[in-house]
TrEMBL record:
One of its GO terms (biological process) is fatty acid beta-oxidation using acyl-CoA oxidase. It holds the Pfam family ACOX_C_alpha1. The lineage of its organism: Eukaryota, Metazoa, Ecdysozoa, Nematoda, Chromadorea. Residues 289-450 form the Acyl-CoA oxidase C-alpha1 domain. Residues 490-668 form the Acyl-CoA oxidase C-terminal domain. Residues 27-147 form the Acyl-coenzyme A oxidase N-terminal domain. Signal peptide: none annotated. GO terms for cellular component: peroxisome. This is Acyl-coenzyme A oxidase. It comes from Caenorhabditis japonica.
Length: 675
């Protein structure tokens, strides 16, 4: 038996796809180890996939698009119960990476009844509950004796937390907080799994003590009776209805009617309220925003994975779809041969790799900050907040764009739910909104950049943190791309630094200039905000490029290094062309240099072509995880599209009741009136 570098090859596969895999120049298992950050985890992912493949009870009973929302929730609850019961046979206990993979395989991306329990409820209790509170609730939560969510957003306010309407008023006499929803707009609205699944929530409410507003605080709140699951007295609760996607999750509403909880249900790891109402301040004003930072830090990888789902589907399908000729004397070509198709897909393959590498760095920083904050050191919180705010915005934006490009690259079949593209898009694009609307989060990063720009302008560049140190550096007068015998990545990084620095300083000048002219700070901020967000995007895209460079530098295996270097070339050239207005504005890059960049881009599209399928195969998504007829590993698309269509509920009978009831009589009366 021949051992191929691409480990997805199997006998009986569509030969067009096998031919793609045979041309791969690197070992896809080794690339998976890069993507998933360790050989051990990549191997465990494969093992978990194999275990699941052998357990039919963990498979979907029918394709998701053929199920109603209620059926999906029932099916998801069935599988959730099974994986909870058999967890230790499938994954290592408490291994969150393995849990993430298990969930994606078995439950999928549409959510499940305990999605928010793991993503936010447990992280909130871990970071914000005191040891005593953790003893009471955390172990029960981890054991799934109780199910919880994170209830912050309201019907009227999601972004502006200072103006939430839910109040928690301290009653010194009873040592209780009274939770209350004063208006319709004060109803909690959106929290995942709040509607029907959770019996507890970490609730964010404005805390009032003796008439003073202490701002948003987090409280552990029982919502439903633990035995009957009926809502408790004083609680109004339900599902907010179907969404664009993610409909297995019961995003919910919640109202309180003078609902009392003990004082000790305020999460008190960093903040305290004494029995007499004395308030003890936390070491950092935003320390209780930690559950949001947790999700923002992890969602970079989640978004990269969803982008890669779509790219895997589109790249495999483009290798089996033949349409038209390039040379009219030759047979029809695979659509992947078209330069336009490559230009649509390959830069996004490069972005997906760039995002997953940036995501790994972000999680590392998050874990470090989590440990430091637990010991009272809050010095890196602002850096982490700035970084994750920028990354969640930029990555979710390009992920959604990339998925849509991948869908269009599949032509008509991309529009069928058999491709699963619409669900992948719908779930991923939610990331542009949840955990802070993207524009709002870019503006959070902009605050950090403006402060950094002030340091530069006042000659204090030595005080800049490592993520913004480049703002204080001097630029060359022009870019050296194509001006040195070998244009290396350093030239590109310097160019991106120049662009980000110039835009940051320009946006900050505009903001400070408006204030000097007498505008009040918030007005000046609003009038500069488009320019400020441009700076935030450029800064973040620079960070992503640098993370990619750092990773490629670390890779030892020469075959992997070569293909990752090709991807990085593609990435930097594509990015530079995409932001060329900024580079041309001050003549830092000339149009002849951009011609070089364009030529490089086309060169690397062609160079990557033989590795395209191997690059997507390296993510090692099983068919169960992808849930896409177009993206099947074996490439047998057409016969399975036909089988899928035949299984559609509409095809259960030859004549639909609606035809009997309406169309037949309509046609009959039309015919009769002609007589
Ligand atoms: C295959 C993979 C499948 C994966 C599938 C995953 C699918 C998952 C799907 C769904 C899960 C969805 C879960 C979603 C949950 C949610 O959405 S929860 C709700 C999230 N809500 C938000 O994010 C609200 C956004 N708003 C805010 O965060 C804040 O309001 C704010 C905009 C940050 C402003 O806050 P605030 O009004 O309190 O701020 P100011 O008083 O103006 O102060 C600003 C200063 O505070 C600093 N700051 C803010 N936050 C932090 C922080 N976290 N850490 C450190 N510092 C912080 C900020 O930098 C300002 O500092 P400065 O004054 O020095 O400039
Ligand atoms: C799929 C999904 C899951 C969610 N899960 C949860 C959950 O589990 N728990 C929870 O509590 N919440 C959840 N949410 C809510 C989510 O966090 C909020 O919707 C989000 O933070 C955006 O807030 P908003 O809806 O108030 O948007 P808005 O703030 O109303 O945004 C509307 C527009 O106003 C702009 N805007 C608002 N403020 C500013 C500003 N200061 N400067 C400039 N522009 C501004 C925005 O950019 C946007 O264009 C979820 C939402 C979704 C879609």
């Amino acid at each position: 038996m021949v051992h191929h570098q691409n480990k997805a090859i199997r006998e009986g596969d569509n030969p067009d796809l096998t031919a793609e895999r045979v041309t791969g120049t690197f070992d896809t298992h080794s690339m998976a180890a890069q993507i998933y950050n360790s050989e051990a985890h990549a191997r465990r992912r494969r093992e978990i996939t194999e275990i699941i493949a052998k357990r039919p009870e963990l498979h979907d009973t029918k394709p998701f698009p053929f199920m109603t929302r209620e059926e999906k929730i029932l099916e998801s609850s069935r599988k959730l119960t099974l994986i909870t019961k058999h967890m230790n046979e499938i994954i290592e206990p408490n291994n969150s990476n393995e849990m993430f993979h298990l969930n994606n395989e078995v439950l999928g991306i549409e959510g499940h009844p305990m999605a928010l329990h793991g993503i936010m409820f447990i992280p909130a209790l871990t970071a914000q509950a005191s040891e005593e509170q953790q003893k009471k609730w955390l172990t029960r939560a981890i054991n799934r004796e109780i199910v919880g969510t994170y209830a912050q957003t309201e019907l009227g306010h999601g972004t502006n937390l200072q103006n939430l309407e839910t109040t928690a008023t301290y009653d010194v006499a009873t040592q209780e907080f009274v939770l209350h929803t004063p208006t319709i707009t004060g109803l909690k609205w959106w929290p995942g799994n709040l509607g029907k699944s959770s019996n507890y929530a970490v609730v964010v409410a404005l805390m009032f003590i003796k008439g003073k507003n202490y701002g948003p605080h987090t409280f552990m709140v029982p919502l439903r009776d633990e035995k009957t699951h009926q809502p408790l007295k004083g609680i109004t609760i339900g599902d907010i209805g179907p969404k664009i996607a993610y409909n297995v999750t019961d995003n919910g509403f919640l109202g309180f009617d003078h609902y009392r909880i003990p004082r000790t249900n305020l999460l008190m790891r960093h903040t305290r309220v004494e029995p007499d109402g004395t308030y003890v301040k936390p070491p950092h004003a935003k320390i209780n925003y930690s559950a949001m930072v947790h999700v923002r830090s992890h969602m970079i990888t989640g978004q990269a994975i969803m982008l890669s789902y779509a790219l895997t589907i589109a790249t495999r399908y483009s290798s089996v779809r033949r349409q038209g000729q390039i040379d009219t004397t030759q047979p029809e070509v695979k659509v992947l041969e078209y330069q336009t198709q490559q230009h649509r897909l390959f830069p996004y393959i490069a972005r997906a790799y760039a995002f997953v590498f940036a995501g790994a760095e972000t999680v590392k920083l998050y874990e470090r900050v989590l440990e430091e904050v637990a010991t009272g050191n809050v010095s890196l919180m602002a850096d982490l907040h700035a970084l994750t705010s920028g990354l969640k915005s930029v990555v979710s934006h390009y992920t959604a764009q990339g998925i849509e490009q991948a869908r269009m690259a599949c032509g008509g079949h991309g529009y069928s739910q058999a491709s699963y593209m619409s669900e992948i898009f719908g779930v991923a694009v939610g990331g542009c909104t949840y955990e802070g609307e993207n524009m709002v989060m870019l503006l959070q990063l902009a605050r950090y950049l403006v402060k950094s720009a002030s340091l530069v302008k006042t000659g204090q560049s030595s005080k800049l943190g490592p993520l913004v140190a480049y703002l204080g550096a001097k630029s060359d007068s022009t870019s050296l791309i194509d001006r040195t015998p070998t244009t290396g990545f350093a030239e590109y990084v310097k160019t991106f630094q120049h662009i980000a620095r110039r835009q940051t300083l320009k946006a900050a000048d505009k903001f400070f200039g408006l204030m000097e002219k007498g505008e009040k700070r918030p007005i000046a901020w609003n009038k500069s905000s488009v320019e400020l967000n441009r700076a935030s995007r450029l800064h973040t895209r620079l960070y992503i490029v640098e993370a990619f460079v750092r990773r490629v530098e670390e890779v030892a295996d020469p075959r992997l290094k070569e293909v990752l270097t090709d991807l990085l070339h593609l990435h930097v050239n594509y990015e530079l062309l995409d932001m060329s207005t900024y580079a041309l504005e001050d003549g830092f890059v000339s149009s002849s240099q951009l011609d070089y960049v364009r030529d490089q881009l086309y060169f690397y599209l062609a160079k990557i072509r033989p590795n395209a399928v191997s690059l997507v195969d390296s993510w090692e998504f099983s068919d169960q995880e992808l849930r896409s007829v177009l993206g099947r590993r074996d490439g047998h698309v057409y016969e399975n599209l036909f089988a899928w269509a035949k299984a559609s509920p509409l095809n259960k009978t030859d004549v639909l009741p609606s035809v009997d009831k309406y169309l037949k009589p309509l046609m009959e009366s039309a015919r009769a009136s002609k007589l």
